[in-house]
Amino acid sequence: MIMVVQVIEGKLVRIVEDGDVDEILKELKNFTGYVKLSIKRDGDFEEGYIFLKNGVAIGYYYNYKDIEAFGERAKEYIEKMKKDKPLIEVYEYTLEKLNTMMEIYREIFIREDKEKTGEVEGEEDEENLHYYDIVLMIPEGKPLRMNVGKDYREYLEGCTLVEIYKKDEEGYKKGYVVYKDKTPILAAYECNGKVLFGKEACKMIKKLLESPDIVVDIFEYNRDKVRILLEYYPQMALVDN
Fewer Cβ in 10 A, N or C end of the chain? Predict the structure, then answer.
């Protein structure tokens, strides 16, 4: 299975084998990051992620073969995983990285007012996005994979630029994401001459990726091009570079 979610990697601070997951969680007071659980089954890995903010579990993500679950549903699978003594890895996040994950993958995170959230909130969010009326100039790199479709993440290695493009009756839409391995570090979104940056761009890029008729190309990138983008468009940054 190719994951839809690419968890932004944190700093590995602890690995525990045959441990008690709940006891580990109790020890992580005031901790911000995630706990990754993994079990090898039939040649595949069953994985569960518990996201913490100041020691409190605020999000869950689970994947195994054809199953991918988020939030409360993921929590149910993870509770079952705990009984099988999974490998436990603890990764520390900066608050910035956690906020980026929360912006990109809202479905992972459990909100107290979740019954109030939905399509209407999403529409309001789009209305409040800060578009720039500028000409966006993104330096391209050497083509690596062209028209790879939504499964582009399996080709991400090293520094790459991913371009997502769609043209319809409303005009054109284009998303740009720079990755360091599988971690998104820069993002911009362009729609009919209007531009979004950073986390706001990620919201629209995620929506763009849900379209059935998009074109996705991957280009080789490097630190020099990243530095140029940060110099001209510092708002593109998703994490500290």
Answer: N
d(CA 12, CA 88): 11
DSSP letter string, 106-131? GGGB--TTGGG-SHHHHHHHHHT---
**51 falls within a domain:** yes
Q: For residues 147 and 77, give the distance between their C-alpha atoms in angstroms, rounded to a whole number.
A: 34
> What pTM was computed for the model?
0.57
Distances (CA, A) of 47 to 52, 78, 161, 196: 16, 8, 27, 33
**Could you tell me the residue range of the domain that residue 69 belongs to?**
11-114
Based on the domain organization, do 34 and 86 belong to the same domain? yes
CB 16 within 8 A of CB 24: yes
When divided into structural domains, the chain yields a total of: 2
- For 160, phi then psi, to 5°, come to -140, 155
Are 24 and 54 found together in one domain?
A: yes
Per-residue pLDDT of the chain (241 residues; tens, 9 = 90+): 444 688 999 999 999 998 999 999 999 989 999 999 999 988 899 999 999 999 999 999 999 988 899 999 999 999 999 999 999 999 999 988 898 888 888 889 985 434 333 333 344 456 678 889 888 999 989 999 999 888 788 888 899 999 999 988 778 999 999 998 888 999 999 998 899 999 899 989 988 988 888 999 999 999 999 999 999 999 999 876 5
In a shared domain, residues 133 and 99 = no
- How is residue 214 annotated by DSSP? -
Please report, for residues 10, 21, 51, 115, the alpha-carbon distance to residue 3 in angstroms, rounded to integers and kept in the order given.
18, 24, 17, 26
